[in-house]
Structure formats: C-alpha cells, structure tokens
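Dear colleagues,

As part of the handover before I leave the project, I'm documenting each prediction I ran so the next person doesn't have to rerun anything. This entry is a single chain, and its sequence is reproduced below.
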Amino acid sequence: MFEIEKIIEINAPKHRVFEALTSCREIPKYFPLKEVVSTWEVGSEVLYKGEVNGSPFTDHGTIETLEKPKFYSYRYWSDNHGTERTPENHLVISYSLSETPFGTELKLVQSNIRSEELYNLMETQVWDFLLGSLKQHLEAHT
C-alpha cells in the first residue's frame, strides 16, 4: 500500500484554514467540486460531488476525527477510482494544522492507497494542485 504526505504553509490563521476545510459552501470555491454535503460530526457522512473530464463522480466518506481547529480525518471511497465499494478500498485522508510565525502549516496524509497508478496521480499532480488552490483561496480572502 502507498501513502502520500504533503506539507504546505498558508498565510492564514489556523481556525480559518480549518473552517475552509470543513465548510460545505466554501470547499467548492477552491476544490473542483460542485457540491459538498455533511453535518460535520464524527461518524457522519461527507459527500464530495464533482466532475472529471465530463464524468460525474461522488466521494462517499465518513468523518473519523474532527478536532477543531487542529485535525480532521475521514475515510472514503470514490466511484471514479475503479474499485469495488468495500472497506479495504476506502482511502483515508487527514489534515493536521499547526500555527507558525507566518500563519498555518497544513499537513495532509492520504493513506491506504492500493494502486500505484492512483498513488502516482495523486502524489505528482492532484494534491499539489488542490493544496495550491486552497492556499491561493485563503491568502486572497483572509
């Protein structure tokens, strides 16, 4: 199995970064999603709905940890990963936030990746784009 770890510094307060990661209205402003649905409670569902190359997809997740404003993790399966919806095919994403002299350090970990192809795509393209978009959004609106 593969794991991705990315760290980015964002010139915004920790509470603001956490809010951006857990707001149904705000997430589609910086991630290429059409809709996010959740009550943002541990054990509740979180749905990330979007489109890739003209094909709609939904990431079906369950919130595992929500410690405002420092840690958020969820386990999910995506219908665009080409896998069966079984527990072993669920990926885990966690966001850890810590204060720095210039704002917030955000550490992303994506784990339980079984496919080398998916790992390479997420590691070299997707997460750099997504985290860069989050940083740009927050620094422009904070």
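The two ends are 37 Å apart (CA to CA). Residues 89 and 95 are 20 Å apart (CA to CA).

All the best with the project,
I.
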